[in-house]
Each structure stands twice: as C-alpha cells, then as structure tokens.
Structure prediction request, 701 residues.
Amino acid sequence: MIRKLFAAVAMTALMTGASWAADDKPAVAYDLGGRNDKSFNEGAFMGAEKFKADTGIAFKDFEIQNDGQREQALRKFAEAGFSPIVAVGYSYEQALKKVAAEFPNTHFAIIDMVVEAPNVASIVFKEQEGSYLVGVLAALASKTDKVGFVGGMDIPLIRRFACGYVGGVKATKSGAEVFQNMTGTTGEAWSDPAKGGELAKSQFDRGADVVYHAAGGTGIGVLQAAADAGKLGIGVDSNQNGLHPGKVLTSMLKRVDVATYNVFKAGQDGAFKPGVTVLGLAEAGVGWALDDNNKALITPEMKTAVDKAEADIKSGAVKVHDYMSDSACPY
Amino acid sequence: MSGPSRELPRWVDIGLIPLVNLSAAFLVTGLVFLAIGESPVDSVIIMLNGAFGYGTGLGYTLFYTTNFIFTGLAFAVAFHAGLFNIGAEGQAYLGGLGVALVCLSLGFLPMVIIIPLAIIAAALFGAAWAFIPAFLQARRGSHVVITTIMFNFIASALMIYLLVSVLSPKGSMNPETRTFDPNAHLPLIHDVLAGLGIAAARSPLNLSFIWALVCAVAVWLLLWHTTLGYQLRVLGANPAAAAYAGMKPQRLIVIAMMISGGLAGFLALNEIMGASNRLLLQFTAGYGFVGIAVALMGRSHPFGIVLSALLFGALYQGGADLSFEKPTITRDMIVVVQGLIILFAGALEHMFRPQIARFFSSSWFKAKEA
Prediction:
C-alpha cells in the first residue's frame, strides 16, 4: 500500500515536472509566405534559431498551407504544451483571439498586430521610421531625383512603409519624385516576384533609379529587376544586401528576429509580459543595413545624413508620420 | 478504351480496384519518403494517429470530410448527367457569399431561422453561379468544362472586389468580413455533445457534417428513386436516346448543373458558417477540385463518395499532423502525397483495370469460381 502511494506521488511529481518543462517549449507559426521567404517569416525563423544556438532549447515551427490551418496550428501547439507561441503576421488576429481565450495559461505573441488578451504579447514596429531612413539614402543615391516604391498587398501597414519612405525622400530633396505601386489586393501579392519585377521596370522606364520594396516574396523580383537594369534596389525586413551584392543600396531592417528571440527569452526566464510592445528606432526594432555588400554604395555624405536623421528621430526632433494613425500621408 | 470482355464482379469494381490504386499511391509515397530519409512506416503511423487517434484529430478529419462530401456529390450529380462540372470551386465561393450575406444582415434572428435561410442562400448562390454555364451549354453548346473553369476565375475576381472594397470593415488589414453574430454560428459538434452531457474534444466539426450525410442520402434517392434522377442518368448515358424518349435535354442540363452548384455551395456552410464565422478570401482552398477525385474514386455513388471523402479528410488532417511532427516533411511534401493519390485514384483510375479484368476472365479464376 505504502509502496503504491509512493509510486503515485512519484508519478505526480513526474507529471508536474513535465508540465514545468512545458514552459520551455517555444514554438513559431509562420504566415503563408513560409519559413524561407528571405524576408519577413525568415526573420522569425532566424530569431528562433539564434535562441536555439544560445540556449540549446529546441523550438517547433509550422508552415500553414491555408487560412483554415491558422487556428489548427495555434491550438495544436497549445494542446501539446508549447509556450510561448509566436504567431507571425497580422493574419493570425482572428485565430489567435479564439485560441488565446481557450488556453488562458499558454503564452502567445503576435507580430504586426495588436490582440488584446491577458496572455498575448503584441509586437508592432514603427516601420515608418526605418522607411524614412532608407528614403534619405534613396534620395541621396538617386541621380535622376526619381525613386520608386513597390508594395505587396495594399493594406494600411504597407502604406505606412510607403509614407515613411516618401517622408525621408522629400525631407532630403524636396523636389524629388516618388513613384508608388502596390502589387495587389490579396495575399497573393506577397508571392508574385514576376509582377514585382514588372512594376519595378515600369518605374525605371519613368526615370526612377532607386526602388524600395515592402512586398515579402514579391520583392525578390523587384531586387532582381533592379540588378538586371543596373539600378539600385532597397531590401526589407531581413538584410537582403547579399542577394545582389553592389546592386542593393541597403535594407530596411525590421527586427522580427529580435522580437521572436525576446519572446522566447522571456518565456525561458519566466518573464513573459502581455500587452503591446512597439519597436522603433530607439528600441533598435527597425533600422538600415550596412555591411560589406553595400559599403561601396554608401558615401560618407550619405552616412552622415542618415546618421543625423536617425539621431533626430530618436531625440524627437523629427517625427515621422504614422499612416495608420489617421489613414493619410502628409508628405 | 477497349472494355473487358466480361463485366467485372461488382465488388471488384467498387472495392478491389480503388484499393489497388490506393496501394500503388501509398507505395510510391513510401518511396518518396525513403528518398528524403524518412521512415514510411513511422509516417503512416503518425498520419493514422493524427487522423483518427484522438478526439481533436478525428474532429478535423470529419470536418474536412464534410467539405469533400459536398464537392464530391456536386461533381457526381453533374457527372451522372454526362456533364463535367469543374466549377465547384467557384460555385462554393459564391455559396459563401450567400451564407455571409444572410449571417451578416440577419444575425439578430434566432438560430433556428437563420440556419435554414443560410442553407437556402448557399444553395441559391451556388446554383445561380452554375446556371450561366449550364444555360450556355444547353442553348449554345459552349462546353461546361471551359465555361465552369472560367467562372472559377470570375468568382475569384468578384470575391476579391467584394471583400477588399465592399465587405471588409474600414481600416481592417485582412480582406474579410466582420465575425458573424453568435446566433449565426452553426453549432459545433463538441458543444452539442457537451449539451447532451458527453465530453468531446474541441474541433471545428459542426452540424453541417450531419447535413452532408443528409445530402448524400438525398442524392442517392434523387438519382435512383425519382423520375428526374432516371432522366438525368439517361441523359448521361445517351443524350440522343433521352431526346428520342421525349425528355428535354436542355432543361435537364440546366437542372443537373444547378443541383450540382447548389451542393457545392453547401461547402460554405461548413467553412464559413461552421468554422471561420466570417467570409474570407480563398476559403474554398481547392476543395472543389479535390471533389472531382473524391467522386471518381467513389464511383460517383453517394456511399462511395462518403467513404472516399473520409479518406481525403484523413489525408488532409493526418498530413497536417505529419508535417507538424516531422520537420523534414514540409507542407509541400503533403501536397505531393495528396497529388499522388489523386493521380492514381483519379487520373490513372483505369491503369490496373485491364490486368485485373484479364485475371478475372482467366480460366484459372473461372475454374475456381465453378
């Protein structure tokens, strides 16, 4: 009898132990673009990989095949005891609202969207600030005073990129012209490199010589078109300078990797904090990329100008307009 | 093709041949898994467990099954009338619009009124979308294969316009409608069971599964126990004979296609009213096309369709679990597996038939039978 009791206690201890260990089971659910999109989703993957390298804690990830699987993926992770679970992309909003309510003891994080729940951390970025900086660089690099922007899906979030970029360009050269195109109005606009390339070419035909993309997988075509035409492209989200060395002026970094890493880290330390986190220049959540691939393209004057702009934004001397605050762009 | 000299026994036609096709598909799948260094046996165990091994998994399997029953039946009804309706995708998409309009505008009504209204709207919108190709086929001889697939594209463009510019709430980043009022949600099976005091795992399986089974019985009754069903089958077997017998082929073509479109529209009950509770882009996710394979594999008989729908449902859910468990098996691998099954069960359906027919007409088999 006593032995039986002892066994039962040991069993319970084991099970509790298992549920404690569950706190160290981080997971990522990617958006439709998939893990290796060289851009937004890949950022999350890189952050998770870095966490694994630093801590030795393995993570699990899942690429959804269709919208219906969003809920399924989150629920499956939660049921299997994963926490924290990072949902990459604003499209997870509805699914996360549902699943977060079903699993109040599981920690979730969502990137690019605010979901208000006591167990959800929402991480959004000030894309307008990073875009402003690459706008400054684009204006200085342009010889024709005409620059381009290719967006992915036409949504407020991407217009926020565009607006910040225009702000940076106009603040540097008030007479400069900015051509803007959006690839489409549906999710397919994130994965259409052929169309992205065509849009970039049409902007080159109109005289642009630098083009910035905020279009996920579509942007691969934009950068390719720029490299083919001997013009300059500007990458986004991840550091894309290396895709066409010497042909990519810079990349607007949106540190999805840092965001993912921090969520995982907080989960490990038991310091998960729900609520909204806004990552801007001051928090090093956005920025621009300078490495061996584009060193030669960035002249000392450009470096000085962009450093000044960065300092001004951080100090508050320059306030970059947020398109999503009033659905309008004043520049 | 040259038919077998002798009719195959029925159990061979509906049982053995699909089984042989399926085994061939799994064999090739196993080879693919071996090639990427995964154990096929392990993978099959994970898939089976994922599809049937636990409550939530089973719920998802039946949820997907519901979709395939609707689109499989849709294809079968037209197929019996000799029409190759590959527009279930677009018809289901429009059915979603019908369901969403009812749920969005009449969300204040009690559930018992909304559900029948949504069923009617789904059928009407789906049928209306099938009507135009049907009419063109009946009156102008424009082939439904061409027109229905073109109508899929038109449906897609129309829904993008509506969702992006008209139906999505202002300032929303997702092209989708607002979530329906709670009255306009189809009850989930686990909630219904909980009401009866039975604990069931949470899944999106909802009452439309029951409706799908009702539809399967109704299609069976229609095709084999009504005059209209008889006429449809005669039209499919021999249009000239149908006309000679005094049936009206033009009218029958339109009726068959509209029934088909209406059944496809019911897909939206499951996806829109049951699971997502809002209208969103591309919710049809290829179910309309897979329905063709489901119907072919089920020999266009409602009972066979329910079974093959269950197989495809299990593949979808088991496949999702497999890519969840094994990082080397990506979502693209699952598409390969599904593609192989469709290839063997649908496209290469007659590959093994001559050999099997020869076997059953061989002297050895006859001697044994005698």
Notes: The two ends of chain A are 80 Å apart (CA to CA). Chain A touches chain B at residues 34, 60-69, 71-73, 75-76, 79, 90-91, 93-94, 102, 113, 155-157, 185-187, 327 (CB under 8 Å).
